[in-house]
């Protein structure tokens, strides 16, 4: 968890945040497997008149593609992500964790 350091106000803020998180622990995902979806609300990002930004995909090593497909299928089955044909796009970033698994 992120905590601020430095002065008394930071300590009070940290205590308030910790209390809030503990009171509502059931709505926070601690692991990737706990991520899910909700239909309680929708979120839109207003972009105004901004031109869409579409970045090219980064190359994915062949050895990683099977695991990436598994991760994406799992997230899609749990409705965390969905297919999109948006004019706004950023590339997938894969990071290998210390235990050798991949983080998306």
TrEMBL record:
InterPro entries per UniProt: DNA/RNA_pol_sf, Retrovirus_Pol_polyprotein
Top-level taxon of origin: Eukaryota
SUPFAM superfamilies: DNA/RNA polymerases (SSF56672)
UniProt xrefs under PANTHER family: PROTEIN CBG26694, PROTEIN NYNRIN-LIKE
Name of the protein in question: Reverse transcriptase domain-containing protein
